[in-house]
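lol ok so funny story. i was supposed to be doing the assay writeup but got distracted and ended up predicting the structure for this chain instead. priorities right. anyway since i did it might as well share w the group, maybe its usefull for someone
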Amino acid sequence: MAVKDTTLKWIFPSVMPTLVVFVIFMPALCCSIEVNCSRPDQTSLLEALTPVFNLNAIRPVLNPKTYTNISMHFTLYGILGVDEKAQLLVTYIWLHYWWINEFISWDEIQCGTKRISLPKNQFWLPDIVINEFMEENKAPIVPYVQLHNDGKVHHSLPVRIVSSCNLDIYTFPFDMQNCTLTFNSYIYYAMDIKIFLGRSAEKITQISKEIMTTMGEWELLDITAKKLVNDDETGLFTDKLAFNIRVRRRATMYVVNLLIPSCFLITVDLFSFLLPPQSVDRSSFKMTLILGYTVFLLIMNDLLPITGNTIPLINVFFSLCLALMVASLLETILITNLLCCSANFSPVPQWIQVLVLKYLGFLVCMPRKTKKPRESGSKIGAVVAKNKSDEGPSENGEDRALRELRSLSNVLHTIRFEVEEQQKGSQSSDEWIQVGFIIDRLLFGIYILFISVSFITIIIIWVNAYDQ
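and the output, tada:
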């Protein structure tokens, strides 16, 4: 008997805390707590809700196997900016959560109100996070939640989201970005919490466009939502709801400040080919243009995107413009050198005559100049010898004047031979000069082709960006 009494004394202290906890939570496990108010005012309602505050540590369901439905939606209030280098999108949203607290209900007439706002630390809150979050939320803290008489809880808060986004800026400044915000519980599995869309994506887009006040250089196109489905049958995964935010960059500022001035400078360099290189120092004019274009790129460097993933098409355009300007300057130096020193050059090689004078000259509509053949020095000597052979034998008595005339004739033939040799060198010089002019005309055509293709590409990309 003593042994039995001792056993009971040891069992009761160990079971006592468990019995106390069971008695406290028994109402929550069996049925919802019916809040009875002594007066129809908020003070009596708050006093009646005090026992429920002790249950804020557990998920508010009567049956632990029942999942909690979280209905959510948000309103995009502002697009604060995009960081291309860090691949970040900064937005400001108003976020709304709705769920049912099965522990609470009261009579609207008895308590005098249908809803009441209470501190949120008195209630269980879902641990919904955004997977793409990269920084702490710096928006103002809302310390209250709204509680309805049927147990529905409304949690509304502003959120400043700095989210990761895979930015594609290849078509800058006519680019569009599609960024994703994925909402899910961090701790609870899908068997505990399920997230649903509380408002249609079309309605979210419409309201966001109506109230949005901060967009900067970005324009909201649309917001779409989809439920991410996991095929895992065990249920050990979190329920996810993803929103795709599609925005488009406003390109007007970049077109005015970047593209138009660059096109003006490259067009001026194009028309500089019309300056005659033999009478105008074209090289100094082109060097001034290159200097101005370099200063322009340095000033506008802050407007260009910085990223390590892809090179924007506009950067390629600026690099090609600068490369063409440098090529035109080098070509001008070549033309000047040919005009001044071609007389001292050796004859034009055969492959240059075929490639440049024949084919490229035909391509740029500058056919090769042909000159009438002249008699060579050997022919002149032959003519002189023939004239001497036709003459009869010289008489010993020919006078001195005849000998002087013959000597003068020989001198004139020698001068003529030297002049013809100089004319051959002049013909070689003319061929080198023609090579230079063909190259000049070819680069002029490349300029026109580049500018035409650039304008057509810009127009096509611009039209496609605004058609979507």
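The first helix runs from residue 2 to 30. The chain has two domains: 33-250, 255-373+419-467.
back to the writeup now i swear
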